[in-house]
């Protein structure tokens, strides 16, 4: 019997109904992305579905972020593709499992909140770099043409790509992108079907009806795609390159997850994210994905936003979305075999384009040019080198920029005493080695024939390099003057 005036009894079916409806929407959004990310990563399409299932049925139960949805993400495609190319598909599970264990350790040490201290410009630059690499690679998949090895080579080969492109595949991929772009202007009832799913479905239908000669997704079956880590895969972890890949997977997946959580929290009025719990939830999910030999997971803003917009109330919606993906993977896996690869390339091209922060760069250039430089440099470094090294470059630039901006020094010489014979030199601010040239440029021209009194009371910070330089300057001045400077 309900309490008088309580809404507890009617709220239960309403909540379940809302979560059930949202779960269907999220599953429809996730389905083409799971398959597309797997194909772009160079692994069987089923592995993307397995990661989506784990993101729902395993990670979805945890209380870190109630409405955030996890699965394979375009942001990790570049790193996974390089790992598969270097170490093989058999080693992927070991790398992902190790990354999950690293995430569990970071969550246990309560390091989740520290990801909020990463410069937004670095994160946006990372996403922009991923978007550029993704676009460069998927243009070749859309054209049904072999791609060169590195991103720079891919970009350089785009001029010659036009002569080698299969026009039928290009038409299917371009049509998929066009549907996704125009779908946002469709009536609300039509938009109940996600644009990516509609684009892939229409391209698949056209390819089947016209019997078009285009490459399609290769299907092996979920059971055949699962690959438990073996002893040979464990040996990969002793490689320094593999250890760097594990660290990069853990850090980038964690950063993308926690930044996504902050964005999702702004979309609803429910419970806020517990960053450490969410980090541990992602760690558990990636450990399970690794044990199954699947792709790594991260929270995905596209699915999470769709979950909120579809009216989800609790974490039941994301758990149910994993169930629908499992049903699809088990009951109708053969449906993937008719999907044109060019259509999935179109989905990922659109996803890569949305990762490019064009508006953010323009705003930053007007208001904070240093941040814009960090963003562009991070993206450029990722394109030229790789994801891990590019992010390290961005972090280094962000730290250097912060140190430069925090190191302000003001030097002022004021006459004092009878007749103004003594110069009081007041030094204020944060004096570090970055400002040492400015400090010495102000002190060295002071007249040698007048007593000088250094006033350091306005200093908030003085590092060892500047302290040593001041001591050296004072001793040299005393030797030239033949006596000590004024105190």
3D architecture notes:
The protein has 487 residues and is mostly helical. It is built from 21 helices and five strands. A three-stranded mixed beta sheet has the order 3-4-5, covered by helices on one side. It has a two-stranded antiparallel ribbon with strand order 1-2. Strand 3 (409-416) and strand 4 form a beta hairpin. Helix 3 (77-87) packs across helix 4.
Residues in helices, as a percent range: 55-70%
Strand content: 5-15%
| Strand line-up across the major sheet | 3-4-5
Q: Tell me the total number of β-strands.
A: 5
Blueprint of the fold:
Blueprint: H1 8-40, H2 45-57, E1 70-71, H3 77-87, H4 89-108, H5 120-142, H6 151-156, H7 158-164, H8 167-183, H9 195-209, H10 222-225, H11 231-236, H12 240-265, H13 275-291, E2 298-299, H14 301-309, H15 316-331, H16 341-355, H17 358-367, H18 369-384, H19 387-406, E3 409-416, E4 422-431, H20 436-443, E5 452-462, H21 464-481
